[in-house]
């Protein structure tokens, strides 16, 4: 215990703080301490940058979530347990964990009904007013920290967050063995949806994007087919996708992981009669939606938001078993001090996933 205390004392709590749009700073923030016997104190090792982090950095808001006070960014993290509260039984100092970064109230109807991701009182990292994980030390309820198996690295651990997003989307889509799945958008979430759909037994997985290099990556990771979307009528794009992937009836499942209006419109024309459509991408709040196609085809249309019970466990299992190779997504790992430059690279679209080492991590 004494050793742990010494190590803990040496850990710095340097944090990457968004003050206002495009204005960030590095600050030594007060070290958090355990406040609840069920919590653990975790030293952050690696954090991935997500589109939402970049959006807050650029605009200071996403929808009705507005950054009013300086906020630490980041939510895709893995770390090492430094101290465990007295009531924690499954983790101890030294354990490597993937952090599920949203903490629900556990008491409302949605929490009690098993859909805690819908909790209205959710405290989610780097969603105002809550600080994020681009910091040295983090406290979390131990049951939202998932021990990484020996064969899974801390860098892979940071990728569990976007993979859990994809797991939730594919569960919402209820993908079955042998089905055909079209995934619109081949960013990190889209390619991970393609990989999870394959792991669920989909026999045809078509990745669609407007950037050729994204499609090259999707093909290397999981997609059986790719299609470069064009600025033509959604019905025409949809027909081209169906022809290209030999899906005369349309796809059993279509997932939007782009948020783009044209892609969403195309999706409703790609899905087959009686098929399923899941909205995972987040773009404009309101768009023109082909509701007649949805009605006439009796499409099952669903949303998907973050992740819920079992999603992190399955994501870790997919990595541990080698069925989803998240390592391939990591374009670069940079030291903490280069966090702002890393955000710029993500904004410019130069990388698939960039990881920022924790402030106490030696690269
Ligand atoms: N539902 C959730 O809980 C959840 C969680 C995380 C991210 N997201 C959202 O999921 C989406 C994907 O996340 P990401 O990190 O992969 O983002 P990303 O921006 O890296 O990927 C989006 C991809 O869509 C492509 N695209 C743009 N227009 C298109 C079009 N018309 N047709 C086909 N592809 C098109 C882009 O080229 C890009 O490759 C984003 O909208 C993000 O906000 C949702
Ligand atoms: Zn994210
Ligand atoms: Zn709740």
UniProtKB/TrEMBL annotation:
Record bears the keyword Oxidoreductase: yes
Domain Enoyl reductase (ER): residue ranges: 19-356
UniProt keyword terms in alphabetical order: Arabinose catabolism, Carbohydrate metabolism, Metal-binding, NAD, Oxidoreductase, Zinc
Biological process, per Gene Ontology: arabinose catabolic process; sorbitol catabolic process
Listed pathway(s): Carbohydrate degradation; L-arabinose degradation via L-arabinitol; D-xylulose 5-phosphate from L-arabinose (fungal route): step 4/5; Carbohydrate degradation; L-arabinose degradation via L-arabinitol; D-xylulose 5-phosphate from L-arabinose (fungal route): step 2/5
Cofactor(s) listed in the protein's UniProt record: Zn(2+)
Gene3D superfamilies for the chain: Medium-chain alcohol dehydrogenases, catalytic domain, NAD(P)-binding Rossmann-like Domain
Catalytic reactions of this protein: L-arabinitol + NAD(+) = L-xylulose + NADH + H(+)
Record keyword Secreted present: no
EC number(s) per entry: 1.1.1.12, 1.1.1.9
GO molecular function per UniProt: D-xylulose reductase activity; L-arabinitol 4-dehydrogenase activity; L-iditol 2-dehydrogenase (NAD+) activity; zinc ion binding
Entry-linked CDD domains: sorbitol_DH
Class of this enzyme: oxidoreductase
Domain of life per record: Eukaryota
Chain's role: Xylitol dehydrogenase which catalyzes the conversion of xylitol to D-xylulose. Xylose is a major component of hemicelluloses such as xylan. Most fungi utilize D-xylose via three enzymatic reactions, xylose reductase (XR), xylitol dehydrogenase (XDH), and xylulokinase, to form xylulose 5-phosphate, which enters pentose phosphate pathway.
Family: Belongs to the zinc-containing alcohol dehydrogenase family.
Protein name stated in the entry: L-arabinitol 4-dehydrogenase
UniProt organism field: Tolypocladium ophioglossoides (strain CBS 100239)
